Amino acid sequence: MNPVLQYLADHEHEFVESLCHYVRFPSVSAQPKHVKNLRDAASWIAERARGLGLETTVHETPGNPIVVARTAHQDPKKPTFLVYGHYDVQPPEPFELWKTPPFEPRIERRNLYARGSADNKGQHLAHLNAVEAYVRTGTPLPCNLVFLIEGEEEVGSTQLYEFLPKHRKDLACDAVVISDNGIPSLEHPALTYGLRGIAALEIRIDGPSRDLHSGLFGGSLENPAFALCQLLGKLRDQRGRITVPGFYDDVIPLSAYERRQMARIPHDDRRYAKFLGVPQHTGEAGFTANERRTCRPTFEINGLTSGYQGEGSKTIVPAWASAKITIRLVPDQKPAKILSAVKKHLQSLCPPTVRLTVKHGHGGEPYLVSPTGPMAQAALRAMSAGFGREALLMREGGSIPIVAAFKKHLKADTLLLGMSLPDDNPHSPNEKFSLDAYASGMRMAAGLWPELARACA
Amino acid sequence: MNPVLQYLADHEHEFVESLCHYVRFPSVSAQPKHVKNLRDAASWIAERARGLGLETTVHETPGNPIVVARTAHQDPKKPTFLVYGHYDVQPPEPFELWKTPPFEPRIERRNLYARGSADNKGQHLAHLNAVEAYVRTGTPLPCNLVFLIEGEEEVGSTQLYEFLPKHRKDLACDAVVISDNGIPSLEHPALTYGLRGIAALEIRIDGPSRDLHSGLFGGSLENPAFALCQLLGKLRDQRGRITVPGFYDDVIPLSAYERRQMARIPHDDRRYAKFLGVPQHTGEAGFTANERRTCRPTFEINGLTSGYQGEGSKTIVPAWASAKITIRLVPDQKPAKILSAVKKHLQSLCPPTVRLTVKHGHGGEPYLVSPTGPMAQAALRAMSAGFGREALLMREGGSIPIVAAFKKHLKADTLLLGMSLPDDNPHSPNEKFSLDAYASGMRMAAGLWPELARACA
């Protein structure tokens, strides 16, 4: 065994300790009360990088700091790769659903339970640990590395989007590596070659100027909650397709090759439904569950609000009703175009008896890299070696909007090498990270740089 | 002019003084700090009745006292009528919206401003004043009268519902008279011959066992909020009719006579929409606004709850979605039958990909007395005489649950003879009672007993 892998094997216990330390910071970017905790998490990861001899800067921003750490003595003749990660985490609420407190790590059967363990502290820390193995064993890296660790990924990366164009020279690279996603199982590591994009919006229907007595007035005016339900209800047909005109116009159809690859990902319908906790899973007709959740656009209602929501009943016609919506986009759908098509359709459906407001939220482009190019093939070999199993090709259903920004500002493609397992509960109570995935991820990260350097040669 | 009416005219000033005294008691049943004030109000109205020679008992209850006052020397050969009222009032808050303090009566342009002036002290005091006119002028009443004045109407009449079955013999009567409602205007006095009933329910759609990441899983399972919208959306057709099978089966169609009567109630579409604060009013096709809000059943969503409702967006497939619903019923719809029809229909529409729960809430029967029957016609004549204008027939859209209790326990129909005007602001700041309505109401009350006694003969 080469000394780098030997080092990783010998120090696994310390790497787990280190991750336990890291997840103790309640670095919740959505909640103002955690500003200090976010700074502490940033300082801690910066200190770790400095300890390995990386040239590290904690960049102040109007929001949370951005940490940039680069390997010393960068060699312009070697290729440069950028590793991206984020030290901020999702809100832990609702607390009562956590078996143990979200920021007190608990290890049970090779899983580390804590908010941020999988998303994303464990995954970028694995990359830093692999660098530690190179540094501590005196093994020269075949490339220059730049770590870029931000603190606002869970709230839209506002500061990073400002930062990237300003630092495009410092961050110039041949490819970006992100481990902030998942794989089907430890036995099925996979390279993610496509991502869904996103378009957010909020719909509000205003009716009477105040909540009205449903006895005195009910029946003689439109009920905004009813109008909202009827409006939204019309947006999907019986085959599960979104009825907005033009919605599917820019969707690149899946090739036969892609569908074959996708079919290799293990999937059991009954088990999947059981995992989700639904009586049976469903979706757009003509596609498999994996295709539906990774390669097809969706229209999701994330929240509904109207009228009285307390105990018992209140006999009112509510003054207004609203819905939060996110649309998942696939290549080559564009957020702005889809949002405007949805808005236009809603306006055409809305009755004149109420007032409709559509507020656009954030948008993110979908992403796709060629699965047969030299970089992807190099990454597949590193994954296969790290996990000890042949890596598959897959797409992911989530959005990593920063991927589009790297393409735009750094002109670099991104390789998505996930370590998270399907039952890791990111964004949910009892988030966890598999310690086996952590170990395999470190081995993959160690093997990645020689493979990628060769592919760039 | 007969001596009774002459007496009423001669003593109007004292009757206003008397009402001013009555409304000074802050008898707010919703607020424990007013327990003493409620007792004082009960004692005051009891003392007034005793002063007229009525046999009066202040019945102690676990809550506020119930006052029963009956005319002396009751004659079993004469018919007996029960006058119901309540001495408790709505909370006055918010104080800052009152032009003058709520329990300091102010008279301005023939209106008496005070909490409880219209709802309901002024209206039942008018009836007692009419009895005073009979007593003081030595005019024999053509009937026996029982006044039943409770102190918990604004908080659900809990004690009265206990009291009624226990005192059904003492309270036996040929008809109940309630003046605790409204009329379109002084120029359009009206007998309310119908009320809507109510059936409450709560619908909940459960999907995944927890909120799921909409990127990772969205598209491969039903979104409970979307399912709820589609389910509810299907419950109403394009003509504004509820699609639940059997929903209209028991609705007694409006007769041509009723519709003609209803059409006499003044109504201006544009003004009405402006008053509601909606771009335009609407409702079930084929009916006028007045018919829609008083004579037609409705299906109102009172509240919607699902997923994330805070600032910004949260990219989840919510675990569940729920709706609070109240259905307004019209004669002869039955709450239990309608609830079961709605539940059955919802179950038939709900897809197998989510779980549906329907929880039944409270129910109340609709109410209707024959508008052409002798009692109603007698009441109409008394109204016309009292207000000096031909009285109309109308229905009201809200529920007065005590009416069903009188029917159940006393087997008596109720005549609803309102004196309140549409701008009286009951339950709102600056409640008022028109002194003209007060005077007309007393004249109506005086004329009512001979008319009703003749109708019973």
How do the strands and helices of this protein lay out in sequence?
2 copies of one chain form a homodimer.
Chain A: H1 3-10, H2 12-23, H3 35-51, E1 55-59, E2 66-70, E3 80-86, E4 106-108, E5 111-113, H4 117-136, E6 144-150, H5 158-166, E7 175-178, E8 190-195, E9 197-206, E10 212-213, H6 224-233, H7 256-264, H8 269-276, H9 289-294, E11 298-307, E12 316-317, E13 320-329, H10 335-349, E14 355-364, E15 367-368, H11 374-387, E16 392-396, H12 402-410, E17 414-416, E18 432-434, H13 435-456
Parallel strand pairs in A: 3-6, 3-7, 7-17, 8-16
Antiparallel strand pairs in A: 1-2, 2-6, 4-5, 5-18, 8-15, 9-13, 9-14, 10-12, 11-13
Helix pairs in contact in A: 1-4, 1-13, 2-4, 4-13, 11-13
Q: DSSP helix count of chain A?
A: 13
**Cα end-to-end separation of chain A:** 25 Å
CATH architecture of the largest domain in chain A: 3-Layer(aba) Sandwich
Number of domains in the coordinates of chain A? 2
Provide the spatial order of strands within the biggest beta sheet of chain A.
1-2-6-3-7-17
Oligomer: homodimer
Low-pLDDT sequence parts of chain A: none
State the fourth-level CATH superfamily of the largest domain in chain A.
Zn peptidases
